[in-house]
Each structure stands twice: as C-alpha cells, then as structure tokens.
Amino acid sequence: MNRFCQPLLCLCLAFLPLGASAEDKADCANDLDCKSSWLGLSKPERKQVFEYGDAYKAFMDAARTELSFVSTATILVEDQGFKRLTDRSPMQPGHKYYAVNRDRTIALIVVGREAPSKGFKVVGAHIDSPRLELKARPLYDKEGFALFQTTIHGGIKTYQWTNVPLALSGRVDKKDGTTVRIDIGMNEADPIFVVADMSPHTDRGFGDKPVKEQVKHEELDPIMGHIPDASGKEIAKQVLALLKAEYGISRADFVSAELALTPAYKSRDLGFDRGLVAAYGQDDRLGAYAALRAALALGTPERTAVVYLVDNEEVGNINNTGARSEYFSNLLARLLYAELGDDYSDLARRRALTASEMVSIDVNPGINPKNPTAFEETNAPRLGFGVNLKMYGQGFNANSEFTARIRAMLDENNIPWQTVTYKVGPRGGGTMGGEFSRLNMEVIDLGVPVLSIHTPLSISSKVDGWNLYRACAAFLD
Question: Contact 154/129 with Cβ under 8 angstroms?
C-alpha cells in the first residue's frame, strides 16, 4: 500500500454530527450569526480534521504540478479500486472508473443508480498553480553563473519569487519518442535553484522604486550552476554536459520540454495549535484534493458522479487540457454511448448536460490580519468559518434556486458555510465554472478562504479543507 493511501484508511468517512448546540446551528443557518467551525467539533471530528490534514500535506508534497498531480492521483485511485475507463466499461451502478487526458487532467466516475442520460453530478477543480516555467532555449551564461531564462504561469508578484529555494520538475520529450522525467529539489540531498535578489548594501536607490518595478518578469532567472570549464568561461556548457550525462538530454530537447520551477518547500503545520497548513499550490490543489477524496468516499450515488480535475485554469482554461476543451463533453458522450449504444444521439448528450449539476471549486483570498480592509467585512470570508458560496454579482452568480438547493444541502449535512463578495469595482480572479455554464449546466462556485494565494507559500485552515471535502461528498451523494 502506498504512503498516500494509509492516512485514508485511518479516516472515518462517515459524516458525524457537529458538537454545536441546536441554538447555535439555527443562529448560523438562519441569521448567519456564525462562529468558528473549530468550536463545533466533537473530539472524534477534531481527530478526523487533523488526520485529513496530514494526508493532504503528504499528497501536496508529491503533487507539485498538474503532471505530478495526475500521476499521484492515479496511484491513489487505483489502490482504492478505480479502473481505467475503456470503450467497453459497463455502466453498472457502483462501478468506479478514471480517465486521463494527456497526463494533465484526470476525471473520476462513480456510476449511479439512475441512468447517466438522466444527468450527472459534477465537481470540478483545477490542478495547475502559479509558477515559473523554462523558456524553449533557457540556458545561458552571465557574470560567472549559468542561468535559466523563465516565463510565468499564472499571476504572481515577482518580488515574492526571489531568494526562494526552487525545485525543477516536469518532462522532456525527445525526438525518438522517449520521455525523460525530471524531479530535482524536493529531497534534502538534491540541489536547489534560486533567483538571487539584491542585498540592502547594493540596491540603494533601486529600493525606492515601486514594488512592482523592483523585479521585472524577465529578471526571474534562477542560478543553475557556477563551476566553469577549463577555459574558465563556459559554465552553461558545463551544466549542459551534466544534463547530458545524467538525463541524456541536449540543448534542443528543451524545445519539447515542460519544466516548472516551484518552491522547494514541503507542506508544514503552521502555529502552535497546528490548525493551519502552509504549503505551495493550495490554489487550487486544496479543492482538487477535497474533490478527489470525496470520490473515494462514495458508495453508489443516486446520479452518476464525475470529479473533473483539470489543467490551465491559471492561464484562462486554454489548450486541450483546459476546461475550455471539448474533452469533458466528449467524456460524457462516452458514458452515454456506453448506456445507450446505437440509440445515442447528440440531442441525448445535450439533454444530459442540461439536467446536470456542477460545483466548481476554487479557493479565494480570506481576510488577512495584515490588511483586513481589503474586504468589506460583512461579505468577506474568514479562515476557519467554512466553505464559501461565491457571490460575485455582475452575472457570475449561480441562479437563486440552485443556490438555495446548495444551502439546503450544506445545512442538512451540518457543513458550515459563508459567502464571499469582493468590494465593488476592484474584483479579480475567475474560475472554471463559466466554461460549464456555457454547456447549460447548473453551476455554482464554491471554495474556501486561503491567505497569500499565488505566492510561494499559502495558508489554509485544516477545518475548512475537511469541510470542503464533506461538502463535495454530500453534493455527489
């Protein structure tokens, strides 16, 4: 049994009643006079929260990018009895399948008692996170160092990525059809890579610039080597020789590579009470992990459940592994054809989509003690107060009737919830939900509050992650 599965077996998947009084629950559900979710936990539930947090941290340390998320999740779901979906997979209630799209997205399917043509219950989340990526011709010499030229994936504050230990991971695809996997920096014996910042002794005047101008995107080039060749000049050539000897890759092979630089931090508990998780990439592998765990907890649901964990949300849901791709619609068509055979039609697919409901998950900023005025507090999410119903307005909200059904589902399962609305005018961030609303599905955006998202180290509450998992499981079931 692998190390990700062991914590799962320790965790009771049944939903236990919360320890809060009936009066407290009524005040929260009806008057929105809610207290921290930690206060309502019984001792068994508190134990579950911390066990869930430990399993989450172990998974996050392995799942650094969409590529490693999919490979790690595949091991986990196969261990828990999921089979790879084929064209001949029978749609028998309770059967569990997974499907992978180009190693960068994964869908989990649990067949329900109702026919798939009656519609699906879908939970979606994205598995990519902001990071640095190598350019196609990255390696060069400068001032006695070998550097890698980078570009960015998603929105970042550039200055936050200097003097951070970085790990290099991904794949290099060669002309002969072979693939070389790269994973350097997460083990203590590995080297790390760093974008070196200026010292306070040498940046006088430079530090007077606005923060966004102090480090330009083109300056996020990490040091990759320092020892020159016999001439005393060619350091990049020496690095390339090491890569050739260790991995068999050439300078041209970088053109067909996907290599990401991510913080070489392992996930850690934060605070004396260990109630918080500090980790890279919680936007939105926190939501993706909750959805994954919910799929593993399912027995035989009423409707066929689909958990869709997808790439490229941070750059606009693009490409054939993003939410805008036809892959999801094609996947549902496969499931419907397995049920209907020659009676399948495009009309049947469209009707099934219209009858489907989806929870689109993505984390969002929580109230930060450093700057609480960034939110209008009555509509701002707080860490530890439950899952968020995202109420952005401006046409982004789910319709009121679907929102009411989600409220009822959360309250019936004693799952604490709150709402999030940005201040009018300065709003930011989006989700993958709009790509599925376009298919005429019922879609609502949920999430949990996280501090310091899109930075090298973000902060979440363990109880929020656990409650998001419970919300996903309740919705799918």
Answer: yes
pLDDT tens-place string over residues 314-334: 999 999 999 999 999 999 999
What stretches of 109-214 show up as alpha helix (H) in DSSP?
A: 211-214
pLDDT digits over 105-143, tens only? 999 999 999 999 999 999 999 999 999 999 999 999 999
As separate numbers, helices (DSSP H) first and strands (DSSP E) second, the chain gives 12, 20
In angstroms, the CA 276 to CA 459 distance is: 7
CA distance 355 to 442: 8
Put simply, whether the predicted model's pTM sits higher than 0.90 gets the answer yes
CA-wise closest residue to 262 among 278, 277, 280, 279 = 280
**More confident call, 32 vs 336:** 336
Closest CA to 400 of 468, 408, 416: 408
- Which pLDDT score is estimated for 353? 96
Instruction: Sketch out the chain's domains with CATH numbers.
Output: 6-129+280-476 (3.40.630.10), 131-263 (2.30.250.10)
Does the pLDDT value for residue 426 go beyond 70? Answer: no
Tokens found for residue 328: 């999801």
Number of Cα atoms under 13 Å in the Cβ half of residue 426: 5
Q: What is the Cα–Cα distance from 454 to 263, expressed in whole angstroms?
A: 12
**One-character DSSP codes across 221-288:** --EEE----TTS--HHHHHHHHHHHHH---GGGGGGEEEEEEE-PPPEEESTT--EEEETTHHHHHHH
Q: Give 399-409 pLDDT, tens digit per residue.
A: 999 999 999 99
- 13 pLDDT tier (thresholds 50, 70, 90): very low
Helix (H) or strand (E) holding 216: none
- The letter for the amino acid at 6 is Q
Backbone phi, then psi, for 98, in 5-degree steps?
Answer: -135, 155
Q: What is the dihedral of CA 138, 139, 141, 145, to 10 degrees?
A: 110
Give the whole-angstrom CA distance, residue 52 versus residue 472.
14
Instruction: Go through 315-353 and write b for each residue having 16 or more CB atoms within 10 A of its CB, e for each that does not.
Output: eebeeebbbbbebbeebbbbbbbbbbeeebeeebbebbb
pLDDT, position 212: 74
